[in-house]
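[Solved] Which block belongs to which protein?

Original post:
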Amino acid sequence: MNTKKVLVLCFITLTGLAFAAGLYSFTTHKKAISPLVFPKGSTYAKEWKKVDSLVNLGLSKSALAQVELIYQKAKTDNNATQIVKSIMFRLKLVQQYQEDDVFKSIYQMNDEIKTSSYPLTPILHSMLADIYQQYYTRNRWSFARRTEVVNVKLDDISTWDLKTLFDQIIKQHMLALKDADSMKRTPIDMYDDVLTYGTPDGRKLRPTLYDFVANRAVDFFMNDEPDVIRPAYKFELNSPDYFKNYNEFATVNISYTGDSLSTKYYAIKILQGLIAFHAHDKDPSALIDADLKRLSFVRKYAITGINDSLYLNTLLALEQTFITWPASTEVTHDIAALYQEKALKYDGRKSEDNKWFAKKAVVECDAAQARFKDAYGAQRCAVLENAIKEKKMGFELEKANLINTPFRGYLSYTNVNHLYARVIPVDFESYRHGAAIITRTDRKH
């Protein structure tokens, strides 16, 4: 699976802090903050430098007051980026001295969403979904023992059962995608102040707000975690059509009228939307990234019985379609990784199946590096090739052997030209006596 981290919001690493403290209520300190505008001639950058300085001095409350000033200014300016950054920092700072619970965090985030507008609203919905998910992660043991609640109070999270919680996570992700058409026209760089690019080509892979929010939703829906809830009628990837080439897959009819908790349905639908959105891009980087995610997902969950062959054929076609682009090396890497998986299944004691797949993987890796040696996919290929060529040796004995009879050992090795072995006879009683002496000596020390 293509698991690289392309683009993350800085606050994603901070939302967990909300569970130690809760979201800070700005209204608490309004009287202490005056005025609610920047000093004359100041800018957001200058005000954030003040926050950093106060944080470095360990003055969390003063830093939080400064964040309040920035937040109020950002609200006045309707500056989505600065509002998000303010929320991010308050999560970080308030946990140092305020002891509110997770429920207050969620309630206040809901209030923030109610007063927000586009393009802030999609980000806040996505963030709230993440907070709900982290809440489940930290309380998994509790939910495992909780029975389904008949009359759930949506305004009282402490009464929620597992089904209700996952319903809310799904709801928030889908609400984040509500304005998909607008988000497709909104460049992601408007949120640069709160984004971290995990790879050099991160911006190309997530060029719009839609790409960012959709991929966050897909990452949740592709996860096995929601499967703890089993819908009565489960959506299944039961057709080879899900393996079709990207341009054909973009038009496949994917319909489902069953349980709303079938997250695999949401995953494949959003992936289809991403692929259709980028199908005619001049630069295929974002398309290839989405399609590799789709193929990996379908390979894992489809029930065709021939997943690997369908997967490989589509990868080979995708690679050839975009062979002149650096992003094609990502496809080549996944082809090589599949060959290596097959190589690891080789067992010379049983058959010659899969014997030469390691060599095929290396050939693919070399080809990617020859085409575009500086591309991210080529770099991944180099890492994979080094792992394939690593020298390895192992020795196994049968688990049970008859006394005073010969027994077998199995010596395995990889990438080793010469191997020397020597069998040394050992008297068991002498060996056991010596081991006992060593044990007693160790105890004395």
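(Second protein starts here: sequence line, then its structure tokens.)
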Amino acid sequence: MIAMRTICCSRLIQGYSLLFLLSLVAIHTCQAAAPEQAASGAAVEQLQQYLKTPLAERMPLAKQSFAGVALTRADAKTSEQLLWQAQLLYLRKSRQAEMTAKKIKHGQLEMPFFYAKFGTKPASGRSMYISMHGGGGAPKQVNDQQWENQKRLYRLKEGVYVVPRAPTNTWNLWHQGHIDPMFQRLIENMIAFEDVDPNRVYLMGYSAGGDGTYQVAPRMADRLAAAAMMAGHPNDASPLSLRNIGFTIHMGGKDSAYNRNKVAASWGTQLATLRKQDPKGYAHLVKIYPNKGHWMDREDAAAIPWMAEFKRNPLPRKITWKQDDVTHDRFYWLAVDDKNRRRGSLVEASLDEQQIAIEKIQGIEQLVLRVNDQMINLDRPLTVRVQGKEVFNGSVNRTIGIIAKTLMERSDPTSIFSAEVTVSVTATK
């Protein structure tokens, strides 16, 4: 009995010793973390003071010392909210005039727009449909009339129906380089002034507007939930970047000008092949109306409820990014600098827990990867592999600077990133 008690006491002492050691480790960890948490909290306080300063008196945020301080998860979230509210206020003040005039300017070009609201606004915000008119290389009055027609062409069950007037009267009026920044600004304005849900933005167009859908939807896929092409021609567009949105084609079977009908069917085949190779991507619907010509008697309106079923995922686990002749500096959570912003470049990337894999990369030497706490656990290391080779393994810090930069780029509260890492691709070749 005495021996048994001795053994029990020994185990009890060992247990207390283990608890004591664990408590020492916990105390040491808390002591180490305390300065970091304090610095993070101080950075948020400095941000609050910075945002109270009149806009005209503020120095660039990126140059503020607090912009580079590592943040905790909670402080990063608070910073996002503070910066978004400040940006929303700025948009509503600085863009009130163009919303009143209903006209977007880009350099010397102007894009008037009409919009109408339908249905009851959902709690998450309204949906938005950008609808591009037909026409093209024709006199101004012809394109003006096409714009008027487009205003009346479709009706929504719910949402903001936005009909821009193309800034030019050229054959490629909807897929020139100025269209993308104008549409970006239009989306930002509708988010700020009409409470549009940034994850429910749709693009559509008829005839020359359909040409624009083929071209612009892949370039701006990361801003869209779905897109609809009616009676257009893709020219040199590629469907590769459409992986994460819905894409529907509506075409008259007798619409043989420029082989529109044959090309539409060909795109349907391409999309079906991409879907077969990648079953979680490239959702699509192709409708060829056999007895219709260029005018489909509004049967193409079926595209609207089809698109409405889609909601954008701003943080997809897999991305295919094919740059067109009109290039962009970011696409979902991928980004490039000006040197690597190149026509024809291609990136295929995926995210799996704490690892980002770049499976395919062509035409660029450096790639920026953006992350946030919805994507990975930023309190643990991130691993990056490029074509199977590890190029990064370590921690990435949340900072106010990255949050502000990614928010200012898009004015999209659902596409904010708090950390980033730049990886070299040349080292893997």
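Accepted answer:
You had them paired correctly. Confirming on the second one: Residues 1-16, 18-32 have pLDDT under 50 and may be disordered.
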